Every structure is written in structure tokens, then in C-alpha cells.
Amino acid sequence: MQNCIRLCEETSNTSDYPEYLLANLGARGMLLMYYADNNISEDVFSLATSTYRYIRQSFDYTSFHSIFIFYPDSIITIVRHTRCPPDI
Length: 88
Hints:
mainly alpha
């Protein structure tokens, strides 16, 4: 997951950036669940604070990318169609 996050963060100026962003958020979500489930709170806090920026960015794509759907009562991303970035 950390390798996926690193690869996604290195890619920012491509036409596929929304898909990289989605993969980044998915990997971060999986890591956050792992850290929380295993009481690794120091990693939860650092990863959660750095994740906010990407959550905020993803709202910029809701109006013209069907892969991002956010419900007002929770932050849930439904993936209709996506693909993993290369080398992941």
C-alpha cells in the first residue's frame, strides 16, 4: 500500500490523474483501517492528516468524472470504472 501511495503521489500531471488519485485514496483507506484495527495510532494520525489534501482534491472531479460519487452524510467513494496505475 505504501508503494502504491508513493507511485500515485509521483504522478500528478497526466490525463489519468483522477485514476491515480482514486488509487491513492484507496491505498490510504486500506492502510488507515489496518493501522486503526491494530492500534497503531501514531501512524493513523500522520496518515489521516496527509490524506485530507487528497480527499479535498477528489471533490474537484465529482462534476466531470463518474468514478467519484460522494454522499452528503458520509465520505464514501463508489468506483464505477477505474484501473490501477501501471506497475502496481
